[in-house]
Amino acid sequence: MSDEVVLDDDRINRVGIDEGILCEGKSVEQIETIITTAQRVDRRLFLTRLTPNHFGQLANNIQTLLDYDSVSRTAILGAIRTPFGDPKVAIVTAGTSDVPIAREATRTLLYHGVSSTEIHDVGVAGLWRLQRRVSELSDYPVIIAVAGMDAALPTVLGGLVSGLLIGVPSSTGYGVSRKGESALASMLVSCAPGIAVTNIDNGFGAACIALRGLRAAALVGMASG
Asked: What is the CATH T-level fold of the domain 89-219, as seen in this structure?
């Protein structure tokens, strides 16, 4: 079993973002091997798509090692860093059904020591809900917008705020929403220029874009200082 596990110990030093362990498709035995391998060398881990059922099947001594969040289906092995300073990222959802994706982004940022603010249920079907938060959102250098169905939220935000805007199409919706494919297409053809777009339901990927953006901004600030 150990031959199936090759952790990328140097990734965070190379790119500034640690490896995310995708648990979906892995057996309980494989997940336990990954965790014990990391613990043996005192390495932190961030695990994604770890369902409550999967988590419940892990050995009790493995479960106690993890900080598990059932909403985002994520787990953290090792110390959770205390974020420094005010939140740099706002994570916005069009509807309450998008909260698990947003929480995945929140937890990814938390693992990397970056605080964020979640703002939920501000989809454009009730435009007033978004309008009353625009001034607040304008203060964030990075915004992650999660939306399904026609996914209009990132496009509207793209015409109102100046920060790095990351759209996450969600699989929320009926019929021709096609499990998020329509939302993905909508974001890709947005008439608001400069929106980064992730894969469907990819809160982890959105957080990684945010981390790269914040790192780039810090480097630019150092160069111009």
From this structure: Rossmann fold (3.40.50)
